[in-house]
Write the structure tokens for this entry.
Amino acid sequence: MEVAHPTTSLPSPKRILYVITKSNWGGAQRYVYDLATAAKARGHQVRVVSGREGELTDRLREAGIAVSPIPSMQRNVRLASDLKVFRELLAIIKEFAPDVVHGNSSKAGAFVALAGRVRGVRRVVFTAHGWAFNEGRPRWQKMIIGFVHYVTVLLSHATICNSEATKRDIRWMPFVQKKVAVVHHGVHPFSVLSPQEARAALAPTLSARTWIGVIAELHPIKGLDVLIQAVEHVLPDYPEVGLVIIGEGEERGYLEHLIKVEGVTGRVILAGHVQNAPGHLSAFDLFVLPSRSESLGYVLLEAGMASLPAVGTRVGGIPEILEDGVSGLVVPPNDGPALAAAIERLLKESGLRQTLGAALHQKVLKKFNPELMLEATFALY
């Protein structure tokens, strides 16, 4: 459905360049899309630089927004290709001459902070959608990554954290705290398919009556292996239950193997990439996000907009969305038994499911309003 943008505006028309590494359709990409389309609707000239082509670039073009892909811009560090990316970004900034350049994700943020300063851009903004030093890495890598993050924040005129937890993670950084702001993401209302249509589209062979669902990249940081093992623990007592995982990624092979090992083939479905994934949330009776690390958890906002009861882990900004026992259930990360117990509780208590789903819906409407996000972000421009 089309959503009217609020009237918040910048003082005068500006040239705004957004930069993001990946072009899939995750929370960071939705964020860039919302900002870019809102800025364009206000009469600003907007361009988006991304890595390889993907759903984000397709949607931006459909919205009439100029896109400048740099295919060699990837998440992993490769010195030769990274130097090429930097030169290409410098050339784009010189040609477009933006008033504001806004980097998103760790790598794009670092490129933008340095290139923006080199080119003398008036306003360099960086949004941290999480910190790579929170991922499972050797200590020496975390130290190097932490230093790069610090330089990025130091060079940027303003840094946006999408949760209080993300801001707390960098409280050790000196001389930058006054230019760090927390701006929660906002989610627009969206239409959903009927439950029958959504289930037929996602997993027509799944005969379960009660569906547990998640939308996530198939990546170790999302903790989907823990979720599969937790559901395996639940299934003997709840034979009517099935799990559907929407998303694609590098862990598909491992998760397929785990599903076989755990003996849940046919009961746990990897649905792969799904166009308009939020529109299929009506298929689910409850939503689970078992992340090992998460800056906010955008999919929980979508689950809330769909009035689904949700279980999440106590990492990053998830507890800012899910207040345990009030707007959701929160468990420790990497704790399969605790996750299984929370799922079982919601399966047993239909009244609690309805209460938590309604409470989460109201919280998302009030606290994670896209108008608030746009107003606060444009104020930093």
Notes: Residues 1-7 have pLDDT under 50 and may be disordered. DSSP finds 14 helices and 13 strands in the chain. Residues 76 and 199 are 36 Å apart (CA to CA).
